[in-house]
Amino acid sequence: MAPVALRSASGVRSYLALNSHFQRRSISLNSYLISPRELDAALKKNVISKISTAPRVIPLSAAWFMPNDPERRTGWDSFQKKRIPTARFFDLDEIKDHDSPYPHMLPTNEVFAEAMRKLGIRKDDAVVVYDTEELGIFSAPRVAWTLRVFGHTHVHVLNNFRTWVRDGLPVETGEPSTAPEPSKYPIPSFRPEMVVKFAEMKTIGYDYGKEGAEEVQIMDARSKGRWEGSEPEPRPGLRSGHMPGSTNVPFQEVLDSETKCILSAEELRKVLESKALDPKKPIVTTCGTGVTAAVLEAALQEAEFGPVDDRRVYDGSWTEWASRVSESSNLVRTSKT
Fold first, then answer.
1. Rounded to two decimals, what is the model's pTM?
2. N or C terminus of the chain: which is more exposed, having fewer CB within 10 Å?
């Protein structure tokens, strides 16, 4: 039998640390938006072992459809129909603040951590969030933004699953045969600098046009008709219209019309500049319930447009705004006002 080389305890620790560092680098994804080919290559480098503690790349489905979807599609149905192998499903309608009357408010730190544990996601995993083949880009940026708000470091958005499928990359169908192995995800820290709440938005609305007030730009991702107040909101009884001084940038305008991928940085800058937005001033993105506001936030990141530390999402968005501001406040504007 050949002699076995012995290593000291410190030598073993150094070897393991070096090996872990090599594994981390080998699956690193450098940009927020990543292509299907980049994700496919990274997944092939995952260490497939229940006992391995090496960081992994985890595909996370954020499949979600509007409550008034004419085909009555659901995210879970879409996930079972077609998904990336080893993907987990993030339920946008469940992982939220259930005490809030508004649809998709951020969950508590504890609820978020418990969701990550059940999904088998570890704190040092690289998570790649993706949408449905049908919609291209829609709710994935919201889920990715949520992970970032709770301090998850390695978060990316796939641009996009429709292209993944068309490129012939692997997919699974049916209900997953096994549940993920639960993780020990710690209670995270919340990053308040990424989020705007109602009280601050109300101040911004009242200050609009006043001399000396900070010029905060509001980008609204809803359709032109809803923004103008000429079309109804999808939620019964909710007024349509817009916040004072807001700029209408329907989220579809930052997507390719055919592939539904987020546009290139150069194309995005052209769209943003056409809206007379100033890259030097603070930006808040909003929409109906805080979902497609994150599409605009992802577009701002990709275009490197706006102050890096002052691009934020209004969590409650129009549903909270129209529900809470009074008729007499003049904080709901339309194309006629």
1. 0.90
2. N
